[in-house]
Request: fold
Amino acid sequence: MAHANEENRAETILKLENVHMYFGRVAALAGVDLEVKKGEIHSIIGPNGAGKTVMMNCINGLYRPQRGRVTFKGEDITPLKPYHRAAMGLSRTFQKIELFGGMTVLDNIRLGRHIHLKSGIVSGSIYVGKTKREELEARKFIEEEIIDLLEIEGIRDKTVEMLPYGLQKRVELGRALALNPDLLLLDEPLAGLNLEEVEDMARFILDVNEEERWKVTCILVEHDMGVVMDISHRVFVLNFGNKIIDGTPKEVQNNPEVIRAYLGEEDLYSTRR
Reply:
C-alpha cells in the first residue's frame, strides 16, 4: 500500500462535495464529501441502510443529488447520464447480478465494450475497414486480457444462466472491465460467495488495481470486513447518510464511532469493561 506522502501527491480521480440525496423527508445522504485518489482501493462501509448504494448511484449517474456535485477526472459530471460517465471511463458492477442470462459468457462481456466502438452504420453493415479492426481489437482485448485474468476460459461459450452464482459474479466483473475503465465501482462483489470464491474475487480485485496492465482505481462497497481491511488503501464509513470517518483501515478499526455504529452503545460499553 502507498505511504502517506505518496497518497498526498496522488491525483484525485473522483470527488463528491456536499452531496445531499433525499427520498421524501428521508436524507439518504446528508452533505457527504469523498475524495478518491488515483490508484486506490477506496472502500465504503456502513450498516444496512447507511446510504452506501445511494452513494454509488450518485457516482455513476443513476441518481442525481438534490445538492452538491460529483467531479470525475477534474470535470463536473453531476448532470451527466450514466452512459456519458461510462464513456469517460467509469464502470460498475451491481449488488444484484445484471447479466443477460440467455447469452453466452463471451457475448455478455462483449456488451461492455460497445461504448468504445466508433464505426458508422455503413461500415458496420459490411464489416470492413474500421469496423473489422475495432472488432478484432475488442476480441483480442477480451479474450487475451479479461478471460485470462478471471480464469474463465473453460466457460466462455456457456450460457450465463446455466452457471453457478460465483462464476456469474466473475462474468459481471469481466463485463465491467471490458469498458477498460479508469474507475471501477464494485457494489458488494463478495455477496453470496463461499470462502474459496471470496478469496478468488479479492485476488482479482487486487490484480485489477495493482497489475501494470490495469492499474484501475476501485471504489468497493462490501460487508466482508476482513477483506475490506486487508485490501483497502482507505475506508469511508457511512451511517444514516452521514460520514463518520474516512481514513486508513487501522484508523477506522480503532474509531469509537465506527464501533458504535456496528455494535451499538451497550456492546461498545461491554467491550471497554
Remarks:
- Residues 1-8, 119-125, 265-273 have pLDDT under 50 and may be disordered.
